[in-house]
Design a protein that fits this description.
By secondary structure, the chain is α/β, with parallel strands linked by helices. Helix content is 24%, strand content 30%. The chain has three domains: 209 residues, HUPs (Rossmann fold), CATH 3.40.50; 82 residues, SH3 type barrels; 81 residues, Elongation Factor Tu (Ef-tu), domain 3 (Beta Barrel), CATH 2.40.30.10. Strands 5, 6, 12, 13, 14, 15, 16, 17 and 18 form a nine-stranded antiparallel β-sheet that branches. Strands 3-2-1-4-7 form a five-stranded parallel β-sheet, sandwiched between helices. 42% of the residues are buried.
């Protein structure tokens, strides 16, 4: 049996993760990762970390396993929060959850656990790891969780095969209802606890409220695009470019409080009335502090056929899966969490990896991750460029 350090978050998923490992006979150690401690920014009266760490400690006590709190706030701020603010200032939309898994849980936390003599770390993610012997060598595969409503493989799209080899995901083959049932049968105090909402590190605080404490509000024009040239028979490189908007392509319909607070595809928070259909964000111009919007979900400025990932931003879980320039491969792709998988052709070129979808896609957002799947296996990902 192995010594396994479990990331106890204070929720039901990580609680059952520890329970199952203990039932399998492993030596289990519970660790709560404290990733944020700046009260002035996190609005501490709404931040549940104290409650969550207490619940994690109580679960560890119920299971009779060692427990400690690991303060990772300085590293988290440097690796995640500062990057997140920088991306929003550039007019891009990062995904802090993907970065947290790559930089914190399966890097710093994993390294700390191994230094403590652990054989592996475990988390309550709804994903599966499968080890297969291929040509005499054991290879790791990252598979979707079996509960389609809870599958979290997208959030682990930046992991490496080496990181996977030291990771365990005991609940990946379970349904959420089964997890709650197991927790209730074991009498765990988190059995009926609601799933966490809000940012991954500051709990209930809304992202716009958090951003406004670091990025200054700045009034600017909201411009509705009414004249958009067609992109018929465009070349691949052009299909992968975001639309380029200009004030002369539309009319001013309102004011916003900072273009960097908005993201492509956003509908709420525009505060512009009197329209036959809702307005959607088509693009942001942070340099001139302009927000471009379009009326209706069918506005052509919301859609494009392809996206591009810069060569240095392409990540393959297994390096032997990588495409060399000139190679192509058909895979299923999602460019945001919970999006149904989309059929696409990946085309490797010297200036990047192009993902061309069979069907035109809504709200492809620079800064987000596109994740590549072959069947139920996640094989790679990359940051959407521009």
């Amino acid at each position: 049996m192995a010594r396994v350090v479990v990331g106890l978050s204070g929720g039901v998923d990580s609680s059952v993760t520890a329970l199952l490992l203990q039932q399998e006979g492993h030596e289990v150690i519970g660790v709560y990762m404290r990733n944020w401690n700046e009260e002035s920014i996190s609005l501490n009266n709404e931040c549940p970390w104290i409650e969550d760490s207490h619940d994690a400690m109580m679960v560890a006590s119920q299971l009779g396993i060692p427990f400690q709190v690991l303060d990772m706030a300085l590293d988290y701020k440097a690796r995640i929060v500062d990057y997140m603010f920088a991306e929003y200032e550039r007019g891009r939309t990062p995904n802090p959850d993907v970065l947290c898994n790559r930089e914190i849980k399966f890097d710093l936390f994993l390294k700390t656990a191994l230094e403590l003599g652990a054989d592996a770390v475990a988390t309550g993610h709804y994903v599966r790891r499968e080890t297969r012997k291929e040509q005499g060598t054991e290879r790791e595969h990252l598979l979707s969780g079996l509960d389609p409503a809870k599958d979290q493989s997208y959030f682990l799209c930046q992991l490496s095969e080496e990181q996977l080899s030291k990771a365990l995901f005991p609940i990946g083959a379970l349904q959420k209802s089964e997890v709650r049932r197991l927790a209730a049968e074991a009498g765990l105090l988190t059995a009926a606890k609601k799933d966490s909402q809000g940012l991954c590190f500051i709990g209930k605080v809304r992202l716009p409220d958090f951003l406004q404490q670091q990025l200054a509000p700045k009034l600017g024009e909201i411009i509705e695009i009414v004249d958009l040239p067609a992109r018929a028979d465009a070349a691949l490189e052009e299909e992968a470019l975001p639309w380029v908007f200009a004030p002369e392509m539309g009319r001013v319909v309102g004011e916003h409080n900072g273009a960097h607070f908005y993201t492509v595809g956003q509908r709420k928070g525009l505060r512009v009335g009197g329209k036959a259909e809702p307005l959607f964000v088509l693009g942001t111009d942070v340099e001139h502090n302009r927000l471009y919007v379009g009326m209706g979900e069918g506005h052509p400025g919301l859609y494009r056929r392809a996206l591009r990932i810069l060569p240095e931003e392409v990540h393959w879980i297994r390096p032997d899966e990588a495409l060399a320039p000139g190679e192509e491969r058909e895979l299923m792709v999602r460019h945001r969490y919970r999006q149904p998988l989309q059929k696409a052709r990946l085309i490797a070129q010297p200036n990047g990896l192009f993902v061309r979808f069979d069907k035109i896609q809504k709200a492809i957002t620079p800064g987000q991750f596109a994740a590549f799947y072959e069947g139920e296996e996640l094989v790679g990902s990359g940051v959407i460029h521009a």
